Amino acid sequence: MATIYNWDCKTVDVYPTEGDYTDVVYNVYWKVTGVSDQLDSEGKPYEYTINNTQLIPLNSQSEFIPFNDLTNEIVVSWTKEAMGEEVVEGIESTIQYYIDLEINPTSVTMTVAD
Fold first, then answer.
1. Residue 39: closest CA among 3, 5, 7, 8
2. pLDDT tens-digit profile of 11-26?
3. What is the CA radius of gyration of the chain?
């Protein structure tokens, strides 16, 4: 069983101006969805999503990328770098845990007949 993790980091907060630059990203609203290659009884893949925010440090050593040139891929790399490898792995592990629980539940809710 394999799970693909889709990182969506397209929504950001920006400073309108910061020094000589405009629309400088400082906060990312991230959403990570794990999609399993295993299908449920309706033929749909199991999936689970976690979302939150991540502050992005302003780095004077990096080359500035104008807002209109940003892509999800670029902002995902900034977000993961700001989080650190351990946190990224923790997010993806948590998603996998909940997908595994959907596939093999340890508890189910049932209703007793009248």
1. 3
2. 999 999 998 999 999 9
3. 19
